[in-house]
Write a structure and sequence with these properties.
By secondary structure, the protein is α/β, with parallel strands linked by helices. It has a single domain, classed as Rossmann fold (3-Layer(aba) Sandwich). It has eight helices and seven strands; from the N terminus they run αααβαβαβαβαβαββ. It binds S-adenosylmethionine.
């Protein structure tokens, strides 16, 4: 659903309200009460190279607002693993009818277990909107390190944040971070993008 027709706009309004309620109830794990805007989703997907991808991962997929944009751009023979710990969001994610989508109702910490279970050794691109700012530091470090370990050489890690407080976490792990800004989001957001460079 891309909120183009009037009917879609009403559905998007309802989804925004539902996300607000869920975010308010679980602020310590959701980290926000607003889901990503379509401007932010389009921008992050545009920054990614998906044309020859076989395995894509989305961490903290929420109600699937970004998921739909990723699915629209990814190849037919590619799988998208969406990790989400919130039960209600997972129900919404599972309502997306697409055989390429694998909804994982588990923590991003278990990334490796699930991709290996499906026969993948490497990931082409990782999108993340995990609220690292509110997660315990050790868990954040371990998730980002796992992302680095399982990305293919030159694979991309793209992270959404509302501030640059966590920038050093990615810089330490990947050795590089490119920052883009999207004003048209509530609140305005940064996209931090890293590439796995093997020397
Ligand atoms: C800021 S919201 C992003 C939602 C959506 N991707 C968006 O862009 O609007 C962060 C999401 O991460 C999920 N989350 C938090 N900790 C997680 C974890 N350890 N593993 C997987 N998902 C997690 C939350 O439940 C929440 O849905």
């Amino acid at each position: 659903m891309f909120c183009t027709s009037n009917e879609d706009k009403i559905k998007c309004g309802v989804s925004t309200m539902k996300f607000f309620q869920e975010g308010l109830k679980n602020l310590n794990t959701v980290g926000t009460v607003t889901r990503s805007s379509s401007f932010l989703c389009k921008k992050i997907v545009k920054m990614s190279e998906l044309s020859s991808a076989k395995c894509i991962v989305e961490l903290g997929a929420g109600d699937g607002v970004m998921t739909r944009h990723i699915l629209a751009k990814m190849p037919a023979d590619c799988k998208l693993f969406c990790f989400e710990i919130n039960e209600k969001f997972c129900i919404t994610l599972r309502s997306i009818q697409d055989p390429r989508l694998i909804v994982v109702e588990d923590s991003a910490e278990r990334l490796k277990d699930y991709i290996e279970q499906y026969g993948f050794e490497q990931i082409d691109v990782i999108f993340s909107a995990l609220p690292f700012v509110v997660l315990p530091e050790e868990i954040s470090k371990s998730i980002v390190q796992n992302c680095y370990d399982y990305l293919k050489p030159l694979g991309q890690f793209l992270q959404v944040h509302y501030s640059l407080i966590q920038k050093s976490l990615y810089l330490r792990t990947f050795g590089n971070v490119d920052v883009k800004f999207q004003l048209l989001n509530l609140p305005p957001a940064f996209i931090l993008s890293c590439v796995k460079i093997i020397s």
